Amino acid sequence: MAKRSVADAKGGLSAAEIEIVFRRLSQHMPGRTPTAKGPKDQPDPFRSLVSCLLSAQSRDTNTANATKALFALATTPEAMLDLPDDTIAAAIKPCGLYNMKTKNIRRLCAFLLDELDGVVPQTREGLMRLPGIGRKCADIVLSFTFGEDVIAVDTHVHRVANRIGLTTARSADETARQLEVRAPPWAHCDGHFWLIQFGKAICVSRRPKCETCFLNDHCRFFSATG
Ligand code: SF4
User: Fold this and answer.
1) Where is the chain membrane-spanning (predicted)?
2) Binning pLDDT at 50, 70 and 90, where does residue 11 land?
3) What's the mean pLDDT in 113-117?
4) What is the mean pLDDT of residues 127-147?
5) Tell me, what's the pLDDT at 34?
6) What does CATH list as the number for 45-145?
7) Ligand 1, atom nearest to 9 Cα
8) Residue 36 predicted with pLDDT over 60
9) 204 C-alpha to center of ligand 1: Å?
């Protein structure tokens, strides 16, 4: 099979096809359950934000180790700011980019305390005003911590959505904006879970299992390459 990039999957699916794709995903992939493990499975909004900051360019297991080590030292913005930089950096070292992430954690904590009395906003706009928090982290907090029906877009969701043709976007943020409009409303609650599991199990990055994929009759990537 010829190698194609995500951007080569040109032309999005019709609304009817998108409905079929999400229907099938809902039948084949696990959705949001009480035991569903999101990438930043944190019930506390402050911890969820910090976990998301730590997850940038880091594997899930490394993020989990860094998160665990950091929250063993401090669990509030005040307590976090009391920690020396070296202590934070040492705790989060497993997730890489630890000096930059240490600075970002400090900026986040200071902003929360100085501007918001330590209260994490519950809107996307409010969350995205926080230092270091982009659309992905904002949507993860909205979905995983505040329980909103939002399809958070990480690298797996971005890849899968654009291969299939659910979206035609070059950035994860644009994919998120398009999914918000194109995905049927009933799919917003579980869409992130279906797509991320599908991306890890079937539509994997290097060798997607197209021949046996239950979506290959509605996939732009497959019709272009298969
Ligand atoms: S056919 Fe399935 S596995 Fe292959 S690119 Fe499309 S969605 Fe991914």
Assistant:
1) none
2) confident
3) 97
4) 93
5) 60
6) 1.10.340.30
7) 5
8) no
9) 8
CATH topology of domain 6-35+154-225: Endonuclease Iii, domain 2 (1.10.1670)
Establish whether residue 222 lines the binding site of ligand 1, counting it when its CB lies within 6 angstroms of any ligand atom.
yes
Structural domain boundaries in the chain: 6-35+154-225, 45-145
Q: Which residues are catalytic?
A: 136, 154
> Tell me, what's the pLDDT at 8?
42
Cβ atoms within 10 Å, residue 175: 26
- Give tens-digit pLDDT for 176-207: 999 999 999 999 999 999 999 999 999 999 99
Q: Whose CA is nearest to atom 4 of ligand 1?
A: 210
Q: Which long-range contacts (CB under 8 A, 24 or more apart) does 28-32 make?
A: 28/198, 28/214, 29/193, 29/194, 29/195, 29/197, 29/198, 29/201, 30/193, 30/194, 30/197, 31/189, 31/190, 31/193, 31/194, 32/189, 32/190, 32/192, 32/193
